[in-house]
Amino acid sequence: QHQKSAIRIIEEAVHILRSAPGTLLLVYYIGGVPFVLGLLYFWADMSRSADAHQYSAMAAFGLAFLFVWMKFWQTVFMYQIRARVFDEVRAPWSRQRVVSIFVTQALIHSTRLFVILVASLTVIPFGYCYAFYQSVSAHDSGEGQSVKATCHWAWRQARLWPRQNHLLI
Prior knowledge:
Blueprint lengths: L5 H14 L2 H27 L3 H34 L9 H15 L2 H11 L3 H12 L9 H12 L3 H7 L1
């Protein structure tokens, strides 16, 4: 098994991002910017509004939707990066594929907060758990996702290079 150094991995990632066209980065920002703006607005509104208790549940639901929206677009971004790096033909986007990605990302990432919290308290599995959830966002087989297949693939990726993973974190 060929292992790369942590510095080499960072250099390759930066090279891939620098060589990516602007339209590809736009895909990433379509998901990330609404979530960040929504998070900042939610935080400011819930901490300063006298009527926050009346609509906090709906606002939290909206923020959760924006989080899943971000994860969906990160998956699209990573699929396009992978297709570009490996010169793969991009599969067409169907409604079933979009829904499967959206649902799978929502189900798996709904556990993220709790698992990462417990892993950070126990220290040892934190790197594996963090890598698992990052790998979940990078998985798309071209015809959609399933929770079982995505978790299996992400767990294999999380165990790939543990030394480099922990050094990068």
